[in-house]
Automatic annotation (TrEMBL):
The keyword Disulfide bond applies. Residues 4-154 form the Thioredoxin domain. It comes from the Bacteria. This is thioredoxin-dependent peroxiredoxin. Keywords: Antioxidant, Disulfide bond, Oxidoreductase, Peroxidase, Redox-active center.
C-alpha cells in the first residue's frame, strides 16, 4: 500500500454519486477538495465522521473547500446514508476500490482477529491545481472535522 503524500498529483477519477450521476475530480478545478475515504456507510464510526463534516460544511465551503466522501458502498446505499444523517455533501461509490487503490488507501486490515483487505480511513486535501496539499492520517472519527478545520485555519 503506497499512500499518496503531500506534493503528489492527485489521481484523476470519475465515480457515481448518491444520485447515480458521474462526478469527477476535474469538476472542482479552482476549488480545494477534501477527499475522505470511509469504510462503510451507516456504521458507527463512519456516521460520526460524516456528521462532523456535515456540521462544519458551511465553514469548509466558506474556505473554498468541497467535501467528497468515498467508500466501497454500492450507489444504492448512499442516498439512504445521506437521508438518514441529513448529509450536505457528495458521497461517491468506489465498489471496485480503483480510486482507493490509486490514493493508496486500500490494503490489509485487522478487525477482531480477522485479516482482510479494506479501506484505510484517510483524508486528502487537494489544492486548486490538483496537488495533494495535506494528508490527514491521525484523527479519531469524532474529531476528524476539527482536525481538518484546525489545519485550514492555521
Amino acid at each position: 500500500m503506497k499512500t499518496l503524500q503531500a506534493g503528489d498529483n492527485a489521481p484523476q477519477f470519475s465515480l457515481q454519486n448518491q444520485d447515480d450521476q458521474t462526478v469527477s475530480l476535474s469538476d472542482f478545478k479552482g476549488k480545494k477538495v477534501l477527499v475522505y475515504f470511509y469504510p462503510k456507510a451507516m456504521t458507527p464510526g463512519c456516521t460520526v465522521q460524516a456528521q462532523g463534516l456535515r456540521d462544519v460544511n458551511q465553514e469548509l465551503q466558506d474556505k473554498n473547500v468541497v467535501v467528497l466522501g468515498i467508500s466501497p458502498d454500492a450507489v444504492k446505499r448512499l442516498p439512504k446514508f445521506i437521508e438518514k444523517e441529513n448529509l450536505n455533501f457528495t458521497l461517491l461509490s468506489d465498489e471496485d476500490h480503483a480510486v482507493a487503490d490509486a490514493f493508496g488507501v486500500w490494503g490489509p486490515k485487522k478487525f477482531m482477529g480477522k485479516e482482510y483487505d479494506g479501506i484505510h480511513r484517510l483524508t486528502f486535501l487537494i489544492d486548486e491545481n490538483g496537488v495533494v496539499e495535506h494528508v490527514f492520517n491521525k484523527f479519531k472519527t469524532k474529531d476528524h472535522h476539527t482536525v481538518v478545520l484546525d489545519y485550514l485555519n492555521s
